[in-house]
Amino acid sequence: MYLNDDCFHSNIACGPNSLDPKLVAELVNVKPSIRKSNATLYVLQCSLAKTDLEWSVERRYSEFRELMLVLHSFFLRRGGGARPQCFGCAWFAQTLRSYWFPRRHLLNSRSPDVINQRRVGLHQFVQILASHTFSAVPKCTACAKNIFPVVRDFFLKGAVLPDNLCLETLETALQADNFSPVSDPSKSKIEFRKARSVWKVLQMEKPVYSKVSEYKHQQQKCRNLQRAVSAPVPLEDGWRIALGACNNVSCEA
């Protein structure tokens, strides 16, 4: 790996405390359907840590499953959009691989055993969503732009709000950069410190070249450009402008 001499790095460290969710979400109740045409509803109680913002939202099993499919498509499918240079993408992908989502039941989906089994599994799913999306886990521009809004809408769409709270206030509070740093995956890489068991995102502010030939080619282009700019440019009435390397402009007669 070859970097320009004037580049600098900004380290984003991720420790055990980074997984603590700032959005507290719990599956507190289940509303079984009375009619066959109605679906069983799972009630989520949500609150933002260290604030007085609280609300609740009801979701069907199918809505949980739709969100799970979106996450699988982005994080686990090849070419789905997840970036291996992003700690948030890598952590979420690893978590999804080890998580068992409650399966569908076509005939006995309303039985108490199935509902209780789903309640346990979906509660765990909610905890995973909160730990990744609304915590200090570093994210990249890809997952912050594509996944964060989807998960946020899952907790906000159709929410039951108290009288002193409006949806616009929640949407303003639940922004990706309010919870964690967002880095450019094209300028980042992941380092793993085994002794400390800490993932660290090392963000590169300058281009990174994997081959010596690419690095030398870019350096030569910069030198050629500097020579072209530094050459005197004739102007009218015998005046000319000399552009120095320090970008100072001087006029000579």
TrEMBL record:
Residues of the PX domain? 20-162
- UniProt GO molecular function: phosphatidylinositol binding
Please name the Pfam families in this protein's record.
PX (PF00787)
What CDD domains does the annotation carry?
PX_domain
Gene3D superfamilies assigned: Phox-like domain (3.30.1520.10)
Which PROSITE patterns does this UniProt record tie to the protein? Answer: PX
- Signal peptide positions on this chain: none
Q: What SUPFAM superfamilies does the record point to?
A: PX domain (SSF64268)
- Name of the protein described by the UniProt record: PX domain-containing protein
* Organism per entry: Phytophthora citrophthora
